[in-house]
Each structure stands twice: as structure tokens, then as C-alpha cells.
Amino acid sequence: MRILVISDTHIQTKSGKLPPVIQKEASSSDYCLHCGDFTTYRIYEKLEFLTKTYGVCGNMDDDEVHEKLPSKCLIKIEQITLGLIHGGGSPNNLIYYINQEFSKNIDEIDIFVFGHSHLPVNEKIKDKIYFNPGSSTDKVSAPYRSYGIIQINGKSINAKVVKIG
Questions:
Q1: Which residues touch 128 (CB under 8 Å, ≥6 apart)?
Q2: Which of 49, 57, 126, 163 has the highest count of CB atoms within 10 angstroms of its CB?
Q3: Are 140 and 116 in contact (CB under 8 A)?
Q4: CB 152 within 8 A of CB 30
């Protein structure tokens, strides 16, 4: 399974234009995970039109996003369990925050997928992968725009951050 991972798109225009590379990647992926800060629910609808999409609300999302999407969720794809969350607080404490938020399910989760900081992360800690795709639309607090691709094959996970040039 091929999964496009995006976060912190912060798209506020009525047209809700996603970057062309994200539209192309969504169309060629089995799933899309959006880690919050859509800003408007219209972005979720556009992604859902392109591929099966899971999303969570973030701190910058409007009321409609908060009403329609959870703050965190567990997703099972093949033999892998993903914990999807936006994140919160200081970027320096995101791993701690995520572990606290998923403390009841931490043993069953293989990969934590999150956003909030705009900083890409692909790190393995104690047999768990922590993956933040960065932001595909801006470079606030990050050296470049980026998105993620996760490949799942049975119990195997291959996650990578892709820089947008």
C-alpha cells in the first residue's frame, strides 16, 4: 500500500487549491493521511475525491473541521497500526506529547504520524517510528516544503520525506 502523508497545508482560499504535486501524489496513492491544519474542511473533501483519506483536526482548523474530524485516530492498514494526530505544544516536546496522547494504545501502534511543527521527522525510537511529513505549502520553521510517502507491505514499513523543489 502506498500512502501519501501531508500536514499543515493551511490553505485558506475559497478555491482550496492543493499544490499540483500533492494532487498528483494523492491520485497515485492508495490512501492519504492528513495530520491536521487543513484550515478548511474543503481541503479534506478535495483529497477524499482523489483517494481514500483519513484526517485529524489541528489547532488552526475551523469549526467545521473540528466537528467532522477527530483529534486523533488509529488506522489499521495491512498488518500495521498507525496513530494519526496533529500534535500540540512546543515542537521540542512533540514525541512526549504524542506518547501521552496514545498512552492507552502505545503497545499496538507501529508508526506515529503527526504534524504541527512543520519540521519533517522520520525517526525510530524503541521500535516505534515517529513520522512528520513537514508542510507541503510553506517553510515556516522548516528549511523546505515537503510531504511524506509511506509504503506498507504486510508488516514492513518504508517511510520517506520528499522535499518539494
A1: 106, 109, 110, 111, 112
A2: 57
A3: no
A4: no
d(CA 124, CA 118): 19
What residue segments make up the domains of the chain, in order of their start?
A: 2-164
Nearest Cα to Cα of residue 55 among 76, 79, 39, 71:
71
Class (C level, CATH) for 2-164: alpha beta
User: pTM for the complete prediction?
Assistant: 0.96
- The upper half-sphere exposure of residue 46, i.e. CA atoms within 13 Å in the direction of its Cβ, equals 18
Contact between 57 and 70 (Cβ < 8 Å): yes
Residue 112, C-beta contacts closer than 8 angstroms, at least 6 positions apart: 82, 83, 85, 98, 102, 128, 129, 130, 131
